[in-house]
Specification:
The protein has 15 helices and 16 strands. The protein has two domains: 243 residues, 2-Layer Sandwich (BirA Bifunctional Protein, domain 2), CATH 3.30.930.10; 85 residues, Anticodon-binding domain (Rossmann fold). The strands form three sheets. An eight-stranded mixed β-sheet has the order 1-5-6-11-10-9-7-8, with helices on both faces. Helices cover 39% and strands 20% of the residues. It starts with 15 loop residues before the first helix and ends in a 5-residue tail after the last helix. By secondary structure, the protein is of the alpha+beta class. The structure holds zinc ion (2 copies). One zinc ion binds next to helix 6 and helix 9.
Length: 417
């Protein structure tokens, strides 16, 4: 028997109800913030990610699904979306439109990670990007948007963690200092960290190995070494967040795994997710367009939500919520009743009710099906009911049954009642 590939999974009903809920809420929140959807291809030239994500990141060195196309081109399934969004921004010269470009996306991403709880090789992200400005006002806007999507989706008690990773100038000095400090302690760190200490010392700060944490905590911190402009930017972001009533905690060792981030970086974590508790990550990437070889400047900031993890946290904190509802299960008894039941089903559906029409002719069996399907009401329609224009509506939870006229029945499912 052929099974789903390791690290991938089928999302099945009723759990897909939670996924739909999250995506509907996200679209609604993006709409009222006037962020518009962008859909980029699932695969791109490998070079886009090698440059845009960074040659030395784990994503590029170990985790990408890269394959040779029939014409020899090297293609890669997208491991994230920001590089594609910036590629599209440059390719279509979206910078020539007025003002800031506000975009959102949702969909699957692909990384060959070690499968573990909440981590899949095909995983889903919901993200937003605001491109075209270096202003700290945009940082505050995008962080507020992130918080809003999560809270409207129903995630309570999440925490915003905030840091600045500076700009190429101040970070350069900091990285040499970090390299120096690591020279003395690297031997006591994990294998990955020993390698990162040489190639990309900042990423040591990102290590999740518990034994490494005391050593990492003692390393120099970037916030004390930001240049005047980066300090001013970071102070303003914090003030704007405070003005908006958004709580945050400073995390001087919060760096994102991707090379193109500068200044503001942030993460939102939630207790229900255990040690790997991040549900959202984001940051400013003013240098990304240039890293992709573009003449067009595209300073921007964005975030992406790990939808798999958000769904997991919601399932944990609100078990059974957002399941699809079946309002009416109609049981027609006999051919004339079946014709009327089909017409009635259509009218009820047009009023927004979820309706199933029984394909089981026997009343007892049909009611069993209605019960298993979790129907709120069963509507029994026989010849006597038809002749008398009376409809027997049975409340499946209480067992109570009402006799209604067709008009009364339709009124019961009028939108907004
Ligand atoms: Zn700086
Ligand atoms: Zn480590």
């Amino acid at each position: 028997m052929i099974r789903a590939v390791k690290g991938t999974r089928d999302l099945l009903p009723p759990a897909t109800g939670v996924w739909n809920h999250v995506e509907e809420v996200a679209r609604k929140v993006f709409r009222v913030h006037h962020y518009q959807e962008i859909r980029t291809p699932l695969f791109e030239e490998t070079l886009l990610f090698a440059r845009g994500v960074g040659e030395e990141t784990d994503i590029v060195t170990k985790e990408m699904y890269t394959f040779e196309d029939r014409d020899g081109a090297s293609l890669t399934l997208r491991p994230e979306a920001t590089a594609s969004v910036i590629r599209a921004f440059i390719e279509h010269r979206l910078d020539q439109r007025a003002g800031l470009t506000r975009l959102y996306y949702l969909g699957p991403m692909f990384r060959r990670e070690r499968p573990q709880k909440g981590r899949y090789r095909q995983f889903y992200q919901i993200g937003a990007e605001a491109i075209g400005s270096e202003s700290p006002a945009v940082d505050a806007e995008i962080i507020e948007l992130a918080v809003e999507v999560l809270s409207q989706a129903g995630l309570e008690d999440s925490q915003v963690l905030l840091n600045s990773v500076g700009c190429p100038e101040c970070r350069g000095a900091y990285v040499s200092q970090l390299r120096e400090a690591l020279r003395e302690v690297a031997a006591s760190l994990c294998g990955d960290c020993q390698r990162r200490a040489q190639t990309n010392p900042l990423r040591v700060l990102d290590c999740k190995v518990p034994e490494d944490q005391p050593v990492i905590a003692a390393l120099p911190s970037i916030v004390d070494r930001l240049c005047a402009q980066c300090t001013a930017h970071f102070d303003t972001v914090r003030r704007y967040l405070t003005d908006r009533g958004i709580a945050f905690e400073l995390r001087p060792r919060l760096v994102r795994g991707l090379d193109y981030y500068m200044r503001t970086t942030f993460e939102i974590v939630h207790g229900a997710l255990g040690a790997q508790n991040s549900v959202l990550g984001g940051g400013r990437y003013d240098g990304l367009a240039e890293a992709l070889g573009s003449q067009v400047r595209a300073p921007g900031i964005g975030f992406s939500i790990g939808e798999d993890r958000l769904v997991m946290a919601l399932e944990e904190t609100q078990p059974g919520a957002h399941q699809p509802v079946l309002d009416v299960f109609i049981v027609p008894l006999g051919a004339p009743a079946f014709a009327e039941a089909a017409r009635l089903a259509r009218e009820l559906r047009r009023r927004g009710a979820a309706v199933e029409l029984s394909v089981e002719g026997r009343l007892k069996r049909a009611l069993e099906v209605a019960n298993k399907a979790g129907a709120r009401h069963a509507l029994i329609l026989g010849e006597n009911e038809l002749a008398a224009n009376r409809y027997a509506l049975k409340n499946m939870a209480t067992g109570e049954q009402e006799s209604l006229s067709r008009e009364q029945l339709l009124a019961t499912f009028e939108p907004g009642t």
